[in-house]
Amino acid sequence: MKSIIKHKRAVAILNNFKKAAVLVIGDLVMDHFVWGKVRRISPEAPVPVVEVSSESFMLGGAANVVNNIHSLGGKVLVCGVVGRDEMGKKLVHELRLKGPPQ
Asked: What CA–CA distances, in Å, run from 13 to 8, 10, 66, 91?
C-alpha cells in the first residue's frame, strides 16, 4: 500500500502543530452519558429499563474538536452559540478549564 504522507513529513507537521492557530466554528455540544445495567425490558414497549449507576458529561460536536486541538498543543479559538441553560453553563465551564495550551 502506498503511503499518503511520508513519515518524516508527518513528524514535522506534528512538531509544528504547537505553532498552529485554529478557529473552530460549529455546533457546541455537551454529550451526556448514562451508565447502568439493564434489569428488564419494559412491558409497554421494547425499551430497556436501566438501573442508573452514574452519569458523565463530555465536550461534544465542535467543542470536542476544540478539546482535541488543545490536547495536541495547538492554539484554538472557538465560535458557536451556547444556551443559557445548565448544559450551556457546563459547556462554557469545561471549555474554560482547558485554558491556554501549555
From this structure: 9, 5, 18, 30
Question: What domain range is 29 assigned to?
Answer: 15-98
Q: How far apart are CA 90 and CA 2, in angstroms?
A: 45
Alpha-carbon torsion, ordered 58, 62, 67, 69, to 10 deg = 160
Number of domains in the chain: 1
Q: Which three cell numbers stand for residue 17?
A: 502543530
pLDDT at 62 over 60: yes
Quick: pLDDT tens for 29-43.
999 999 999 989 999
The answer, yes or no, to whether residue 102 has pLDDT greater than 60, is no
